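Tutorial handout. Part one gives the primary structure; part two gives the three-dimensional structure as tokens.
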Amino acid sequence: MPRKSQTRKPIDSPDRRRLPPLLRRAWYGLNQAFRRRIAHLEITPDQFTVMRTLTEHDGITQRELTHLISSDPNTVVALLNRMEQAGLIERETHERDRRANRLRLKARGNAKYEKARSLALGLQAEVLAAVPETRREQFLRDLDHLAAACRAATRSTAAEE
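Part two.
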């Protein structure tokens, strides 16, 4: 009788579930559903992520925000420029480093965030209902481990270059 490891299909077998397309499909579906639900607020999912992060970490710098939302500096600068023009955030020169800016959510940004937050929580509950309640916390822990492994792979690849 063949051992279990010998009967497994190769990881790249066409009829096997693959991590990258599954993660992309999940992220894309979630992002599009959320985009549609918050369209009337005239914000994007990325802007919501910034608002949530600023709510949780008031007065952080652009560099800290870039790290916390796992983005690149150029994308964050463009995003913040649009948000500042829309009156959602404000930048203040850092008290010790004049090259850095502290970020704060303005009243208008906070109001939009609160409305979008309730929609986000509803969508999250709707989507997580696909995972049995007894397995949800483990699923989220596993997903967090995957995200950390992806970050580590990025760092190790950068070190090799």
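Part three, for discussion. The mean pLDDT is 90. The chain has two domains: 44-129, 131-161.
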